[in-house]
Write a structure and sequence with these properties.
CATH architecture of one domain in chain B: Alpha-Beta Complex
Strand order of the largest sheet of chain A: 1-2
Oligomer: heterodimer
CATH topology of one domain in chain B: Amidase signature (AS) enzymes
Helix content of chain A: 25-40%
Number of strands of chain B: 11
Number of helices of chain B: 16
CATH class of one domain in chain B: Alpha Beta
Strand order of the largest sheet of chain B: 1-3-2-4-6-5-10-11-9-7-8
Radius of gyration of chain B: 21 Å
Order of helices and strands of chain A: HHHEE
Helix content of chain B: 25-40%
Shape of chain B: globular
Number of strands of chain A: 2
Largest sheet of chain A: 2 strands, antiparallel
Shape of chain A: flat
Number of helices of chain A: 3
Chain lengths: 95, 492
């Protein structure tokens, strides 16, 4: 199904990527091409096939629910572009 | 020491053991080679001081008789691996200024085994690409040139293109790569080196910047099959910090190579003879079949009927996982931040400026196929077809022990080619993606030259956790091919 400009704008918003209106038309074409190409998967008979969830035959490991790490506030904040008083900061969201 | 740069990893290890060269002499020689290789743009960050410190420590350990499997061996590290105190960019603008406070498990294991880090290798942004053209730090050049157009710069393949070029140009003895759909094997083929993607779960993914978590796997890129065996042994192993890393012993991979193939059955999948494949690729494949037959293997025609659906499946599954993994780049916790009036605007501005065109495209495809109303038609169907593809291989293992195919449908191409057609670029991985989707180990071995004098690779796929057979067959191909051509540009 071809993607139109409005859909590009919607996906861009969901993906939190600003796409200027001037670029939406071109992206709509590119994404439509790729999606048109992957649509051939619809012709594969997948009745009674289980979707793959793990590629290796392994049982997810269990471990005791214990704290094994922590107390690394300064390390965790070290790479943030903007920190104040031991916290990450973001633009104001509540007036 | 004369001819130092021509020694393989295994030969260098022997020279170090005999005292013909010391780790610090070796490190200085390779630091010079990394500098000489700068025209290739194979490194994002060079770490000569770290290399010398590590070499001194290696020297002390060797003197005490405590050398590890990689003691004193200078390597490149793909910039997808987080390295403590050293910038780790994933080839992206959005990780500007990011300096990890921790070490990835694989690099920690390599360093514990004595490896010496020369620098961080350039790569396609977030490992998304097959030509190393998408890096924020600029394209990487292949040290090989085509005889037909020797003025044109060629791509090294991708995404581990910097690692591949550095190994091929003798700027490093070996390098780490990562492979999601072919990112170790295709660049290895394009640059005339060996690249091994281990079984999913063999190497820990902890501390490796995530692209598509159900496919990503780290592996060695080296000059020879033996070197790959040595390096894999130092990278592999269980890690409680990666719940998908598998808890089973790491065999002595080096011991697995050598010997004839008399008890092995090699599958040749008829679906890999794709339309429009150049005759020289087909010829090389036939040659490979003949070599393995000569080595004693039994050749078996097999069918992997869902092969043609592997690439479209990959281009749903990988972008879907990427859109989720890359959600963490929000301008808040690390890397680039581009201000906006609101939180939403700050996110959107940061991600628009921080991600390159290919990454934006894949994140948007992934977002779309996971969005309400489309999830079943795209993502769920792709996961079902992925099961079918894995079943094809599972069935093949009833009659064969390994599978032989070409690595890539062409030799290296010029920088800038295929850039306006994403699907043409994706087709580079047509032979490597199926094994990725099935989580299988596979190796690319340089096996011949194209008519234009460019390296071509053969590809061996094995059973889950049977890297030993993959290496054994790879060694047989290496022995028979006796590939000794060198690129026009050598840094050392």
């Amino acid at each position: 199904m071809p993607i139109d400009k409005a859909t590009v704008a919607k996906i861009a918003r969901l993906a939190r990527i600003r796409v200027p209106e001037a670029e939406q038309e071109r992206l709509a074409g590119e994404l439509s091409n790729i999606l048109g190409w992957v649509e051939q998967l619809a012709e594969v008979d997948t009745a009674d096939v289980r979707p793959m969830t793990s590629v290796v035959d392994a049982v997810p490991p269990m471990r005791p629910d214990e704290v094994t790490d922590g107390g690394r506030r300064d390390e965790i904040l070290a790479n943030s572009p903007n920190v104040a008083r031991g916290f990450f900061t973001v633009p104001k969201v509540v007036e | 020491m004369a001819g130092l740069y021509d020694l393989t990893l295994a030969e260098t290890r022997a020279a170090l053991a005999k005292g013909d060269v010391s780790p610090t002499e070796l490190a200085s020689a390779y630091i010079n080679a990394v500098e000489a290789a700068r025209p290739l743009n194979a490194f994002i960050t060079e770490t000569p001081e770290i290399a010398m410190d590590m070499a001194k420590a290696a020297e002390a350990r060797l003197a005490r008789g405590e050398g590890g499997a990689m003691e004193g061996i200078p390597i490149g590290v793909k910039d997808l691996f987080c390295t403590k105190g050293v910038p780790s960019t994933a080839g992206s603008h959005i990780l500007d200024g990011f300096v990890p406070t921790y070490e990835s498990t694989v690099t920690a294991k390599l360093f514990a085994a004595g490896a010496v880090m020369l620098g961080k290798c350039n790569m396609d942004e977030f490992a998304m690409g097959s030509a190393n053209m998408t890096s924020y730090y600029g394209p990487v050049e292949n040290p090989w040139r085509s005889a037909a157009a020797s003025n044109k710069k060629l791509v090294p393949g991708g995404s581990s293109g910097g690692s591949a070029s550095a190994v091929a140009a003798h700027a490093v003895l070996a390098a780490t790569g990562t492979d999601t759909g072919g990112s170790i094997r295709q660049p290895a083929a394009f640059t005339g080196i060996v690249g091994l993607k281990p079984t999913y779960g063999r190497c820990s993914r902890w501390g490796v910047v995530a692209f598509a978590s159900s496919l990503d796997q780290a592996g060695p890129m080296t000059r020879t099959v033996r070197d790959a065996a040595i390096m894999l042994g130092a990278m592999a192993g269980h890690d409680p910090k990666d719940s998908t890393s598998v808890n089973r012993p790491v065999p002595d991979y080096e011991a697995a190579i050598g010997g004839d193939l008399r008890n092995l059955r090699i599958g040749v999948p008829r679906e890999y003879r794709v339309e429009g494949m150049p005759a020289e690729i087909d010829d090389l494949w036939r040659q490979g079949i003949a070599w393995l037959k000569d080595a004693g293997a039994r050749i078996v025609d097999i069918s992997l009927p869902h092969t043609k659906y592997a690439l479209p499946t990959y281009y749903i599954v990988a972008p879907a996982e990427a859109s989720s993994n890359l959600a963490r780049y929000d301008g808040v916790r690390y890397g680039l931040r581009v201000d906006g009036a609101t939180l939403q605007e700050m996110y959107e501005n940061t991600r628009a400026e921080g991600f390159g065109a290919e990454v934006r495209r894949r994140v948007m495809i992934g977002t779309y196929v996971l969005s309400a109303g489309y999830y079943d038609a795209y993502y769920l169907q792709a996961q079902k077809v992925r099961t079918r593809i894995a079943e094809d291989f599972h069935k093949a293992w009833e009659s064969v022990d390994a599978i032989l195919t070409p690595t890539a449908p062409s030799a290296a191409f010029a920088q800038g080619e295929k850039m306006d057609d994403p699907i043409a670029m994706y087709l580079n991985d047509v032979f490597t993606v199926p094994a990725s989707l099935a989580g299988l180990p596979a190796i690319s071995v340089p096996a011949g030259l194209s008519k234009d004098g460019l390296p071509l690779g053969l590809h061996v796929i094995g059973r889950p956790f049977d890297e030993e057979t993959v290496l054994q067959v790879g060694q047989a191909l290496e022995d028979a091919a006796a590939f000794d051509a060198k690129p026009g540009f050598l840094a050392g």
